[in-house]
Amino acid sequence: MTSSPTAGPAAGEAIVDWYATAARDLPWRRPGVDAWAVLVSEVMLQQTPVARVEPVWREWMARWPTPADLAAVAPADVIRAWGKLGYPRRALRLREAAAAVVERHGGVVPSDVAALEALPGIGTYTARAVACFGYGQPQPVVDTNVRRVVARLVHGRAEAGNARASDLADIAALTPPDPGRATRFSVAAMELGALVCVARTPRCGACPVRDRCAWRLAGSPAHDGPARRVQRFAGTDRQVRGRLLDVLRAAHEPVDAAALDATWDDAVQRGRCLDSLLTDGLVEQTADGLFRLPS
User: Angle 278-116-72 (CA atoms, 0-180°, nearest 5)?
Assistant: First the structure.
Protein backbone atom coordinates (compact mmCIF):
# COMPACT_ATOMS: atom_id res chain seq x y z
CA MET A 1 0.00 0.00 0.00
CA THR A 2 1.18 3.52 -0.68
CA SER A 3 0.94 6.27 1.86
CA SER A 4 -2.02 8.62 1.74
CA PRO A 5 -1.19 11.98 0.12
CA THR A 6 -3.96 13.59 2.19
CA ALA A 7 -2.71 12.52 5.63
CA GLY A 8 -0.55 15.10 7.37
CA PRO A 9 -0.82 17.79 10.05
CA ALA A 10 -4.24 18.81 8.67
CA ALA A 11 -5.50 15.32 9.52
CA GLY A 12 -4.03 15.71 12.99
CA GLU A 13 -5.83 19.03 13.41
CA ALA A 14 -9.12 17.36 12.48
CA ILE A 15 -8.54 14.60 15.04
CA VAL A 16 -7.83 17.18 17.76
CA ASP A 17 -11.05 19.04 16.90
CA TRP A 18 -13.00 15.78 17.04
CA TYR A 19 -11.52 14.93 20.44
CA ALA A 20 -12.76 18.21 21.92
CA THR A 21 -16.34 16.97 21.80
CA ALA A 22 -15.99 13.16 21.61
CA ALA A 23 -13.51 12.36 24.38
CA ARG A 24 -14.52 10.20 27.30
CA ASP A 25 -14.50 11.85 30.71
CA LEU A 26 -11.82 9.76 32.39
CA PRO A 27 -10.57 10.81 35.84
CA TRP A 28 -6.86 10.69 34.95
CA ARG A 29 -7.45 13.19 32.14
CA ARG A 30 -9.04 15.87 34.28
CA PRO A 31 -7.35 19.19 35.10
CA GLY A 32 -5.14 19.09 38.17
CA VAL A 33 -4.27 15.40 37.86
CA ASP A 34 -0.53 15.09 38.42
CA ALA A 35 2.10 12.97 36.70
CA TRP A 36 2.00 10.31 39.43
CA ALA A 37 -1.71 9.77 38.85
CA VAL A 38 -1.06 9.55 35.11
CA LEU A 39 1.74 7.03 35.67
CA VAL A 40 -0.51 4.81 37.80
CA SER A 41 -3.26 4.94 35.18
CA GLU A 42 -0.91 4.06 32.34
CA VAL A 43 0.50 1.03 34.14
CA MET A 44 -2.99 -0.18 35.05
CA LEU A 45 -4.30 0.31 31.51
CA GLN A 46 -1.71 -2.02 29.97
CA GLN A 47 -3.75 -4.91 28.50
CA THR A 48 -6.72 -4.00 30.72
CA PRO A 49 -10.00 -2.27 29.72
CA VAL A 50 -10.82 1.21 31.03
CA ALA A 51 -14.00 0.02 32.75
CA ARG A 52 -12.02 -2.36 34.97
CA VAL A 53 -9.24 0.12 35.66
CA GLU A 54 -11.24 3.18 36.71
CA PRO A 55 -12.59 1.98 40.11
CA VAL A 56 -9.24 0.46 41.09
CA TRP A 57 -7.37 3.61 40.03
CA ARG A 58 -9.68 5.73 42.19
CA GLU A 59 -9.05 3.49 45.20
CA TRP A 60 -5.29 3.55 44.67
CA MET A 61 -5.12 7.32 44.34
CA ALA A 62 -7.19 7.73 47.51
CA ARG A 63 -4.87 5.40 49.45
CA TRP A 64 -1.54 6.31 47.86
CA PRO A 65 -1.73 9.82 46.36
CA THR A 66 2.07 10.16 46.11
CA PRO A 67 4.93 7.84 45.16
CA ALA A 68 6.18 7.98 48.76
CA ASP A 69 2.83 6.68 50.02
CA LEU A 70 2.98 3.62 47.76
CA ALA A 71 6.68 2.97 48.35
CA ALA A 72 6.08 2.80 52.12
CA VAL A 73 3.59 -0.07 52.11
CA ALA A 74 4.22 -3.81 52.06
CA PRO A 75 4.12 -5.67 48.73
CA ALA A 76 1.20 -7.75 50.08
CA ASP A 77 -0.92 -4.60 50.44
CA VAL A 78 -0.18 -3.63 46.86
CA ILE A 79 -1.07 -7.07 45.48
CA ARG A 80 -4.34 -7.12 47.43
CA ALA A 81 -5.26 -3.65 46.19
CA TRP A 82 -4.49 -4.67 42.60
CA GLY A 83 -7.40 -7.08 42.87
CA LYS A 84 -8.57 -8.63 39.60
CA LEU A 85 -6.83 -6.31 37.14
CA GLY A 86 -4.64 -9.15 35.92
CA TYR A 87 -0.90 -9.35 35.26
CA PRO A 88 -0.22 -8.61 38.95
CA ARG A 89 3.53 -8.24 38.50
CA ARG A 90 2.59 -4.76 37.31
CA ALA A 91 1.59 -3.95 40.89
CA LEU A 92 5.01 -4.86 42.24
CA ARG A 93 6.77 -3.01 39.44
CA LEU A 94 4.68 0.09 40.13
CA ARG A 95 5.69 -0.05 43.78
CA GLU A 96 9.34 -0.44 42.71
CA ALA A 97 8.97 2.56 40.40
CA ALA A 98 7.50 4.58 43.27
CA ALA A 99 10.48 3.70 45.47
CA ALA A 100 12.86 4.72 42.69
CA VAL A 101 11.06 8.06 42.31
CA VAL A 102 11.51 8.67 46.02
CA GLU A 103 15.17 7.64 46.05
CA ARG A 104 16.29 9.29 42.79
CA HIS A 105 13.93 12.23 42.33
CA GLY A 106 12.88 13.35 45.81
CA GLY A 107 9.42 11.84 45.45
CA VAL A 108 8.51 13.79 42.31
CA VAL A 109 7.87 11.86 39.08
CA PRO A 110 10.47 13.10 36.57
CA SER A 111 9.38 14.84 33.39
CA ASP A 112 12.34 13.72 31.27
CA VAL A 113 11.61 10.72 29.05
CA ALA A 114 15.02 9.14 29.63
CA ALA A 115 14.64 9.46 33.41
CA LEU A 116 11.17 7.95 33.21
CA GLU A 117 12.45 5.04 31.10
CA ALA A 118 15.07 4.37 33.77
CA LEU A 119 12.38 3.64 36.37
CA PRO A 120 11.60 -0.06 37.02
CA GLY A 121 8.94 -1.41 34.70
CA ILE A 122 8.55 1.79 32.69
CA GLY A 123 9.01 1.36 28.94
CA THR A 124 9.15 3.79 26.06
CA TYR A 125 5.39 4.07 25.64
CA THR A 126 4.67 4.73 29.32
CA ALA A 127 7.54 7.20 29.63
CA ARG A 128 6.28 9.23 26.66
CA ALA A 129 2.70 9.04 27.91
CA VAL A 130 3.65 10.43 31.32
CA ALA A 131 5.76 13.20 29.79
CA CYS A 132 2.91 14.11 27.44
CA PHE A 133 -0.21 13.64 29.57
CA GLY A 134 1.36 14.40 32.94
CA TYR A 135 3.59 17.32 31.94
CA GLY A 136 2.06 18.61 28.71
CA GLN A 137 5.07 17.84 26.55
CA PRO A 138 4.30 17.35 22.83
CA GLN A 139 5.65 13.82 22.73
CA PRO A 140 4.56 11.29 20.08
CA VAL A 141 2.81 8.53 22.03
CA VAL A 142 2.19 5.31 20.14
CA ASP A 143 0.04 2.48 21.49
CA THR A 144 -1.92 -0.26 19.69
CA ASN A 145 -4.85 2.07 18.99
CA VAL A 146 -2.62 4.79 17.53
CA ARG A 147 -0.75 2.32 15.36
CA ARG A 148 -4.06 1.05 13.94
CA VAL A 149 -5.17 4.61 13.13
CA VAL A 150 -1.88 5.30 11.37
CA ALA A 151 -1.96 1.98 9.51
CA ARG A 152 -5.35 2.82 8.01
CA LEU A 153 -5.13 6.58 7.66
CA VAL A 154 -1.59 6.78 6.28
CA HIS A 155 -0.68 3.38 4.85
CA GLY A 156 -4.02 1.93 3.75
CA ARG A 157 -3.66 -1.24 5.80
CA ALA A 158 -6.54 -2.82 7.71
CA GLU A 159 -4.33 -3.75 10.66
CA ALA A 160 -1.12 -2.33 12.08
CA GLY A 161 0.80 -5.60 12.32
CA ASN A 162 3.98 -5.68 14.36
CA ALA A 163 5.56 -2.53 15.77
CA ARG A 164 7.81 -0.73 13.28
CA ALA A 165 10.81 1.52 13.65
CA SER A 166 8.88 4.13 11.63
CA ASP A 167 5.93 4.30 14.06
CA LEU A 168 7.14 7.42 15.87
CA ALA A 169 7.97 9.19 12.61
CA ASP A 170 4.53 8.31 11.20
CA ILE A 171 2.69 9.83 14.15
CA ALA A 172 5.04 12.83 14.26
CA ALA A 173 4.14 13.58 10.62
CA LEU A 174 0.47 13.88 11.61
CA THR A 175 1.07 16.05 14.67
CA PRO A 176 -0.13 19.68 14.56
CA PRO A 177 2.68 22.25 14.84
CA ASP A 178 1.17 24.14 17.80
CA PRO A 179 2.65 22.63 21.00
CA GLY A 180 -0.65 22.64 22.90
CA ARG A 181 -2.54 20.99 20.08
CA ALA A 182 0.35 18.58 19.55
CA THR A 183 -0.03 17.41 23.15
CA ARG A 184 -3.79 16.96 22.73
CA PHE A 185 -3.24 15.13 19.45
CA SER A 186 -1.38 12.32 21.22
CA VAL A 187 -4.37 11.49 23.39
CA ALA A 188 -6.86 12.30 20.62
CA ALA A 189 -5.33 9.73 18.26
CA MET A 190 -5.50 7.11 21.02
CA GLU A 191 -9.14 7.96 21.65
CA LEU A 192 -9.97 7.74 17.94
CA GLY A 193 -8.51 4.25 17.83
CA ALA A 194 -10.33 3.21 21.01
CA LEU A 195 -13.78 4.55 20.06
CA VAL A 196 -14.02 4.81 16.24
CA CYS A 197 -11.12 3.20 14.39
CA VAL A 198 -11.57 -0.04 16.30
CA ALA A 199 -10.13 -3.37 15.25
CA ARG A 200 -13.12 -5.44 14.13
CA THR A 201 -15.95 -3.05 13.21
CA PRO A 202 -14.57 0.44 12.58
CA ARG A 203 -17.17 3.23 12.69
CA CYS A 204 -15.92 4.99 9.58
CA GLY A 205 -19.03 7.14 9.32
CA ALA A 206 -18.13 8.82 12.61
CA CYS A 207 -14.45 9.31 11.75
CA PRO A 208 -13.23 12.93 11.45
CA VAL A 209 -10.60 11.95 8.85
CA ARG A 210 -12.61 9.47 6.78
CA ASP A 211 -12.19 11.56 3.63
CA ARG A 212 -8.40 11.49 4.05
CA CYS A 213 -8.07 7.82 5.04
CA ALA A 214 -5.94 5.78 2.62
CA TRP A 215 -7.61 2.54 3.70
CA ARG A 216 -11.12 3.84 3.13
CA LEU A 217 -10.16 5.50 -0.16
CA ALA A 218 -8.77 2.15 -1.30
CA GLY A 219 -12.11 0.47 -0.62
CA SER A 220 -11.32 -0.80 2.90
CA PRO A 221 -9.35 -3.87 1.76
CA ALA A 222 -9.30 -6.84 4.12
CA HIS A 223 -6.22 -7.68 6.11
CA ASP A 224 -3.98 -9.91 3.99
CA GLY A 225 -1.49 -10.95 6.66
CA PRO A 226 -1.55 -13.65 9.33
CA ALA A 227 -4.75 -13.84 11.38
CA ARG A 228 -4.56 -12.19 14.77
CA ARG A 229 -4.29 -14.63 17.64
CA VAL A 230 -7.20 -14.41 20.06
CA GLN A 231 -6.02 -14.79 23.63
CA ARG A 232 -8.06 -17.29 25.58
CA PHE A 233 -8.22 -17.28 29.36
CA ALA A 234 -10.13 -20.37 30.49
CA GLY A 235 -7.77 -23.17 31.46
CA THR A 236 -4.59 -21.12 31.04
CA ASP A 237 -1.82 -20.65 33.56
CA ARG A 238 -3.07 -17.07 33.96
CA GLN A 239 -6.36 -18.38 35.28
CA VAL A 240 -4.66 -20.80 37.67
CA ARG A 241 -2.28 -18.13 38.95
CA GLY A 242 -5.26 -15.87 39.54
CA ARG A 243 -7.06 -18.50 41.59
CA LEU A 244 -4.01 -19.13 43.72
CA LEU A 245 -3.61 -15.42 44.37
CA ASP A 246 -7.32 -15.13 45.21
CA VAL A 247 -6.82 -17.52 48.11
CA LEU A 248 -3.79 -15.65 49.41
CA ARG A 249 -5.37 -12.22 49.02
CA ALA A 250 -8.34 -13.33 51.11
CA ALA A 251 -6.22 -14.96 53.83
CA HIS A 252 -5.15 -13.05 56.94
CA GLU A 253 -2.55 -15.67 57.85
CA PRO A 254 -0.26 -17.92 55.79
CA VAL A 255 -2.07 -20.89 54.27
CA ASP A 256 -1.00 -24.49 53.81
CA ALA A 257 -0.62 -26.35 50.54
CA ALA A 258 -4.01 -28.02 50.96
CA ALA A 259 -5.78 -24.65 50.75
CA LEU A 260 -4.05 -24.01 47.42
CA ASP A 261 -4.64 -27.56 46.15
CA ALA A 262 -8.39 -26.90 46.21
CA THR A 263 -8.11 -24.15 43.60
CA TRP A 264 -7.32 -26.39 40.58
CA ASP A 265 -7.57 -30.10 39.86
CA ASP A 266 -4.53 -30.44 37.61
CA ALA A 267 -1.69 -30.86 40.12
CA VAL A 268 1.06 -30.46 37.52
CA GLN A 269 -0.32 -27.18 36.17
CA ARG A 270 -1.12 -25.95 39.66
CA GLY A 271 2.43 -26.68 40.84
CA ARG A 272 3.92 -24.98 37.80
CA CYS A 273 1.84 -21.88 38.43
CA LEU A 274 2.69 -21.75 42.12
CA ASP A 275 6.38 -22.03 41.25
CA SER A 276 6.03 -19.16 38.78
CA LEU A 277 4.33 -16.99 41.41
CA LEU A 278 7.18 -17.71 43.81
CA THR A 279 9.72 -16.86 41.12
CA ASP A 280 7.91 -13.61 40.27
CA GLY A 281 7.93 -12.51 43.90
CA LEU A 282 4.13 -12.52 44.12
CA VAL A 283 4.09 -15.32 46.70
CA GLU A 284 6.57 -16.39 49.35
CA GLN A 285 6.94 -19.57 51.34
CA THR A 286 7.56 -19.46 55.09
CA ALA A 287 10.15 -21.51 56.93
CA ASP A 288 7.44 -23.95 58.03
CA GLY A 289 6.21 -24.54 54.48
CA LEU A 290 3.18 -22.22 54.42
CA PHE A 291 2.38 -19.71 51.70
CA ARG A 292 1.55 -15.99 51.85
CA LEU A 293 1.77 -12.80 49.88
CA PRO A 294 5.20 -11.14 50.11
CA SER A 295 5.83 -9.12 53.25
Answer: 50
